[in-house]
Amino acid sequence: VALCGSYVAIQAELEVLVLKLEATTERTATEEPSESLKCADFPEDQGDFLLVPKHQELLGDRAKDCDIPVNVEQTGLEDGRHYTVFYVLFRRFTPEFFQGCSVEEMQLHSLQLYPMFTSKQSVSVDEPACIFCFFSLPTAGHLYSLRGGVEHLSAYQYPEKVLQAVLTDHLLQVITKNALQSFTVRCAAVAARVEDPYIDTTMKACPPCSLEVCALRMQLFIGLRSVCAYGRHVILLSTADTETPEETERHTQRRGLSKRWAISSPKETSTVGHGWNLYVVDTVPPLTLYQEMVEYSQRYAENNPQGLSLRHLLGEAHLLLRSCLLESSERQQGGEGARKMAAQMHREELEEAFRQNCAQLGDSFSRGSQKDCHLALPYYRMSRLSVTEVMSRNRPLPGCPHSYGPGFLFYLKHYLLEETDQILCQEDADEVTIIFSQSEPSMLVSVCASPCMMNVDPAATLQLLQHLEDTSGVSVPLTITMATMMLRLGNMARYAELMERHAEMLLVYGFIEEPRLLLHGGGGDKHTQVCPTALARQLADSQPGLLVAGMVALHENSKVQLEQADHIFKVCVDLWEAMLMASSQDAVIQELLFRLASVYIDRLTASESPTKHKSLKSADDLVQLQCCLHL
After folding, report:
1. What is the b/e burial string over 528-561, where b = at least 16 CB atoms within 10 angstroms of the residue's CB?
2. Residue-wise pLDDT tens digits, 83-106
3. Residue 407 belongs to what H/E stretch?
């Protein structure tokens, strides 16, 4: 039996049942076993047959169909509370032959319920965020996650007969007759997703729980019998085997002749001393193990930079560091003084190694296949590398001077499409335009409109834009982008020529297609700060009607909020009047009517002379508003 929190796990020779007890204030009726269950025991006349149970796995609510009745017996110590039993997991195995292991030896062992806390929890107060159930046969081990839905995480296939196993935060330690072996675990992958809802998004990533496990280390011993773990220590008990190989073989043959697999007679304890030995093995510190993984990964990278073995090893290192970070959070909560300071320094080392690992994973996915290239973005984000540093890590390979990985391009596009305060220097901005002109020329307009690209060389960019126009044809956003570059160069004649190439309505459609040609920071919350572009400031002086039409179009297409549009104009009356004529939203109309009515009343009642601002709307245009002014 294993206990953890409200979970109870029960192990038979080839069956495991996991239950959950929930306290209630009302007494629940106990179910009597059905007649079919009462008669489930096989009659005596079937003793001449070998009865083999059917393999079965029932998860969650389906586990109650295991036909094993469970009743809660009151002891009088429950403080008035009653408990309800919920079936969580049931697993039944069939006996199998295995080299060096008889059918009778195919029995479950090492049942364990293992809790794991997140960094936001208190170990002494909170229920564990994750609970795992591990059990093992001599040939294979199984790890399940119980909280938040039962899930089979990993299956461990042992190369030889395993006598006992113990699960820890970082590794699974198993013993055979002559060796201690270590396997990786997936507990940290589950805990990371429980702790952080941004995992598996464009913000953060983590290797999947289904990542195949692997063996890391093996140490040779003689006659191992038992294993347990405490912190970073593994305690082993061993003894010399006094049986000769011939006696072992005869004993195995006698046991193999038994007709009932479920009955095993215990060995008699020998009175002769066996020379028992106790070993306490210090496991390798996680940071040291991580450094060894990094060294191995460099060898993989030299032979095959895009190989799955490299990515698998980096993923194992990532999960190792994640489990250490969870553990260090628990230590910081419980430590004081010098111990807390040491824990803080240790955590800083872990975080630095974690960022390094995220950068390596980002490099792996940046040049990977199209299927997983999107993972380069969250890993680079978690590494906290600047876009300049990411670009330096993704220079084209010598054999492919114009080839950039799909993951790197995916990262770069998301970076440029987001509103960020980081502005690239001219050298980096020019390199970005060259990258997209070679890889995805259709993205050049969006790239040039990004607020990160304010320092781009307008003359060099114009050449790339002109080449794009020659090869792909004329488009309105492309023309506006070229006009913006001419404006930056101070060539007003060429700027006016480009702006007059298309009708005003087509230019408005161009602004809808790429709003950042007019302003940066639009959309989102109404309190988000917006900034007009150089083109918007030029239009405010030379073509205010086009600017108003563009802003109205952006507002109607939910590209900018009303409060944000107010920051673009010194005098907002023209914008409000135009929006009122175009809007069909009642809430917006009510707000605009209130603002305009206040302005008109202020103009009529002002003691001084009216404003000299020339309105863009005539009196005939405003007649349409009179029917609404009573509101």
Report:
1. eebebbebbebbbeebbebbbbbbbbbbbeebbb
2. 889 999 999 988 776 555 666 678
3. helix 406-417
